[in-house]
Amino acid sequence: MQGDTREVDQTVADMMPGEDEIQQRLHYLELTADDVALLRHIHPLLQPRLPAVIAAFYRHLLEIPVLQALLSDPVVLDRLHHLQGAYFKTLTAGEYGSDYVRHRLRVGLAHQRIGLEPVWYIGAYRKYLGDLAPVLHDILRDRPAQFISTYNALMKVVSFDMGLALDTYIQAGRQQLRASEARFRAAFGQAAVGLAQVTADGRWLRVNRKLLDILGYDEDEMLAMRVPDLISPEDWQIDAPLLQALANGDLQTSAREKRYRCKDGRLVWVKATVTAMQPGTLVAVLEDISQRKQFEEELMHLARHDALTGLANRTLLLDRVSQAIAQARRSGALVAMLFLDLDRFKTINDSLGHDAGDRVVIEVGRRLKQSVRDADTVARLGGDEFVVLLADLPHELVAAALAQKILCALFEPMLIQGHELAPACSIGISLYPRDGADGKTLLKNADAAMYQAKALGRGNYQFYCEEMNARTLDRLTLESGLRHAVERGELQLMYQPQIDLASGKMIGAEALLRWQPNGQRLVMPDAFIAIAEETGLIVSIGEWVLRTACSQQVAWHRAELADVRVAVNLSARQFRQHGLDAMVARVLADTGCPASYLELEITETVLMERPDSAAQTLQRLSDMGVQLAIDDFGTGYSSLSYLKRFPIHALKIDRSFVCDIPADTDDAAIAGAVIALAHSMGLTVVAEGVETVQQRDFLRELRCDLAQGYYFSEPISATSLANKFIHGEIQK
Ligand SMILES: Nc1nc2c(ncn2[C@@H]2O[C@@H]3COP(=O)(O)O[C@H]4[C@@H](O)[C@H](n5cnc6c(=O)[nH]c(N)nc65)O[C@@H]4COP(=O)(O)O[C@H]3[C@H]2O)c(=O)[nH]1
């Protein structure tokens, strides 16, 4: 309340007219000394009559519903009543100097502040004058000649008052405008976002502190420029018509994100929201969104790149392929996709750990990037799979040359955790338009070609061809069928006898796996062992083989094949499988097969991959009493002396050295040397793939211990083997 009074006092002081102006106004209203004398005359006579006139004045005001609401507070009404009463008392007192004016202004302000519109206020004066006329007439009944001049004098003072009342309303309006302008200026100046007033043609009319901070200019520099001086021509091309539409009132608001050039040359991302306040006046809110944009860009980068290598990921790759295809469609060039898979990457991961694996992947990514042009894309799809995309290719030979270059680049050994690794890779190549019209098809076909490259011995590249698709399909069918082969009882073992060449007696049989999917033809191991290896299914399949073969050995033992040993193949993955020895021990215990009647065959290549840990595994198996044989001997690169490190019992000479003896003198010499050396090391020698009597005789002459092959028997079922043995058909 005190604040209110102070404000009213201030407003009154601000608007008080000077003495001269008061006199001028009174002069203009022709208020004369005679008028003043007439009013002074009626003044004392009027006082007793005033309360009724004032009451009628407010009654009249309160007849209007809007005013009832305004004057509903009895305290306010009482105050106004009091003020108005005091005023009416001074109206005819004859003193119209500054005190009178000040009081008049206070009354006017009091009404203005409660929201009483001038129209009602002035209208109430009319009521006052109307009600006062008969009162005056009565007071002057003795001097009727003075009525008109007195009433006229009263009219002049009331007009003077009405002028002052209107002044209060106008002044208050002005003050409100000033206050709201001040508030706007403060808000504009101190806003936490950039604010500007602009014209339709992009001139800055007013800019706030924050905007100057964002862009680094001072106010004068800013106001001397236009929006197009700070944004790219492309952005201005979009903005210019928008500003025009906003200025014309065709558009209410527009919001766009664009980059502004700062004074120091930096580009900042700004979200500019422009609104038409009144036609022609545009207010722009400019927010610095650089941080958000940077964050978005980082997210975008993460979403489109491989975290480990920083190379493109599948999403970005497919994007780039689409672009490359669109461009090739116009230019008639080729697009090539090279699908790379590291050979034996799993071995690195398993033996040296994932850190080493990661470092190999990073190094491979780096070498790939080095091998291609900047315009080409190198992507990592995950694991050890990479794709190189070559756009705008003149000829497929260029893709082949690059594949060769990549093979060479990866052939250079890399030093990882003190180990020299040279992770060879297999590459499959697909070409647009020949092998597919979209990224996904090209990728699928390059993948199929890569599988082909792997199947052809790894470390090479292959172009995609139609038949690969069929092969891939075959592979997928095999893979899904194989998953259920054990539980569906679709696997079976065949046995091939191993003959002691000196006595002609069968002393063992090699278990060979067959798969007979329901209602389909028999599948040979070469067609599915590799798949079982890659998918890990070999672990459960292998255990099934071992258990079945050991049970079979026990069954034979109970029948008449008392001393027949059973030989079981172990694949690379099985051999490296954690807990292999425990699994073997468990199977032997479960089946009751004596360890010495089980022979495990491991290929030479598997042993040579990681000789140290292979020696340990072999030692544990040998300690259990299990017999160990090296399969396919001669196909790897190990020397006999190296094999001394392994606790093995037998060597199986690979079929390829047997098939051409005795005619091929080289093979004959090799076979002879291997047998002699193996004997010198105390190893038993088994010749594989003996098909003819000549081969048998020759091997017997070379003192080879055992032989197996079609000459003696093809792999046959356990029952057939037992029958043949009992009937003496196998002995040769
Ligand atoms: N041309 C010719 N071939 C002969 C002759 N005698 C035997 N063979 C074949 O030579 C292969 C010998 O087995 P492997 O070298 O261990 O080679 C095996 C072995 O590495 C793998 N394999 C077979 N069964 C299993 C198994 O249960 N587990 C694992 N991990 N691998 C197995 O599959 C390979 C192929 O097995 P199969 O197709 O049964 O082929 C067998 C056998 O049928 C002959 O006189 N002439």
TrEMBL record:
Boundaries of every EAL domain copy: 475-729
GO molecular function terms noted in the UniProt entry: cyclic-guanylate-specific phosphodiesterase activity; heme binding; oxygen binding
Signal sequence annotation: none
Domain GGDEF residues, every copy: 333-466
Pfam families the UniProt entry points to: EAL (PF00563), GGDEF (PF00990), PAS_9 (PF13426), Protoglobin (PF11563)
Listed InterPro entries: Biofilm_reg_signaling, EAL_dom, EAL_sf, GGDEF_dom, Globin-like_sf, Globin-sensor_dom, Globin/Proto, Nucleotide_cyclase
GO biological process, one term: cellular response to nitric oxide
Domain PAS residue range list: 180-250
SUPFAM superfamilies listed in its UniProt record: EAL domain-like, Globin-like, Nucleotide cyclase, PYP-like sensor domain (PAS domain)
Substrates-to-products reaction catalysed: 3',3'-c-di-GMP + H2O = 5'-phosphoguanylyl(3'->5')guanosine + H(+)
NCBIfam families (UniProt xref): GGDEF, sensory_box
Entry protein name: Diguanylate cyclase DosC
Naturally occurring in which organism (per UniProt): Duganella sacchari
